[in-house]
Write a structure and sequence with these properties.
mainly alpha
Length: 107
């Protein structure tokens, strides 16, 4: 939803960007995100995967941000990034690497 995205973008642009570990996590996410999206979208259970990402990571992270529990939100966000990376590498490792190389070349 728009409210979910707004809260998480504000968290990213404030809390995460103000910390070196947060900046590294953001960079890693943007580096691997295109390959993750392709990997998920190729699966027949993609709707279930996106639902799990939303209910398991994004909504709890939004609630943590709203409660001022930024360390918890960071933990959820980083768990999401690395969980999705492991998933995409397991099923589509070469594809993920190819997208990473392409993104780095054109940035």
């Amino acid at each position: 939803s728009d409210a979910l995205l707004h809260v998480l973008r504000t968290f990213r642009d404030g809390y995460l960007k103000s910390r070196s570990s947060g900046r590294r996590l953001i960079a890693e996410y943007y580096r691997i995100a295109p390959g993750i999206v392709v990997a998920v979208e190729r699966r027949s259970d993609k709707d279930e995967i996106w639902r799990r990402v939303t209910t398991g990571f994004l909504v709890p992270a939004m609630r943590a941000v709203r409660a001022g529990r930024f360390a918890l939100a960071y933990s959820l966000y980083s768990s999401m990034v690395y969980s999705l990376e492991r998933f995409a590498r397991r099923d589509y490792g070469v594809l993920l690497d190819r997208y990473t190389e392409r993104q780095l070349r054109f940035d």
